[in-house]
Amino acid sequence: MSGSQKHLKGMSYAKYGYLFALPFILIFLFFTLYPTIYTMILGFTDAQGVGNTTSFLEEPFENFRRILTNNTFITSLKNTVILWMLNFIPQITLAMVLTAWFTARRITIKGQGFFKVLFYMPNIITAATIAILFNALFGYPNGPVNDFLVSTGLKESSVNFFVSKTGSQLIVAFIQFWIWYGNTMIVLISGVLGISPDIYEAADIDGANGLQIFFRITIPNLKTVLLYTLVTSLIGGLNMFDIPKLYLRGGPDNATKTVSVFIYDLAFTGKQQFARAAAASMLMFIIISLCSAFLFWLLRDKEAIALEKMKKQEMKEKRKGMSGL
């Protein structure tokens, strides 16, 4: 073996891995971890705006108490949950239907790539553009939707969707659904393509039909992907900001005001209540963490956990037997 080969054999490449990871670590520390910790600290202070003197409160949890007793915060939290459910249920339903359609082994769909791009397209349009688009579509008294309703006789006169609480919530929920169903579909299709083809071939040999294959093979094997989709949708839904803010600025009468819009208004629209906004942010952090933990527990792999317990029990019994000898 030559000297250069010995040198290469004894070389450690671990340091290069650390070097490649260093930019991400620095960005995470500066832009994620530090702001999170600083926000936690602000929640226990009387911070108001930039440049004002900040000091810790005598009652540390005063800001949290005020937020929890704030009627606007309670209303915005209810709105956030309602808007998320109104868009996620049809979103996951349509995404599952499209996934079954695109991955069906017995159906040949021409132009699959075109349809996938078409369905995913809303996800890449900026929120500001979408807000302007839907403001124009539902314009009052003249707009494409009102013109259609009046011309077809469904309504005698134009409807002002911007002053209807229920109508505004449904429109915001529809926009969120329209933006994200394509992304959810792509994630689910990727999960289906990761399932072993041998399972489907065995099902075909056994004479299983399309519905049986989808509900008894595809969905059980997609449990991990569905958990990922549900958790990420929950996190994104509870942090919903851009469409409710840009479309109607939380109106009418706070009907589309989400918690993120409430926090923004509290901190940056004249009030400059940084401390209370930070407290509201940490409360949402806790709520999202608890909800995510519950979903992980609810959708846990019970069979794998039971098998792991059996293995541990067998190991304990073996150890007891060896110690008896």
What sort of overall outline do the alpha carbons produce when their principal axes are compared?
Answer: globular
Unreliable segments of 5+ consecutive residues: none
Helix content: over 70%
Q: What is the H/E string? A: HHHHHHHHHHHHHHH
Secondary-structure class: mainly alpha
Strand portion: under 5%
- For the residues shown, what is the average pLDDT? 87
* Main β sheet profile: none
CATH architecture of the domain at 72-274: Orthogonal Bundle
Radius of gyration from CA coordinates: 27 Å
Number of strands: 0
Distance between the termini: 50 Å
CATH superfamily of the domain at 72-274: MetI-like
**Number of continuous helical runs:** 15
In the CATH hierarchy, what is the class of the domain at 72-274? Mainly Alpha
By CATH, the topology of the domain at 72-274 is MetI-like fold
Structure description:
The protein is an all-alpha fold. It has a domain of 203 residues: MetI-like fold (Orthogonal Bundle). It is built from 15 helices and no strands. The longest helix has 33 residues. The chain starts with a helix and ends with a helix. The mean pLDDT is 87.
Secondary structure elements and their pairing?
Layout: H1 3-9, H2 14-42, H3 62-68, H4 71-103, H5 112-120, H6 127-137, H7 144-151, H8 165-193, H9 197-205, H10 210-221, H11 223-238, H12 242-248, H13 259-268, H14 274-298, H15 302-324
Helix pairs in contact: 2-14, 3-14, 4-8, 4-11, 4-13, 5-8, 6-12, 8-12, 11-14, 13-14
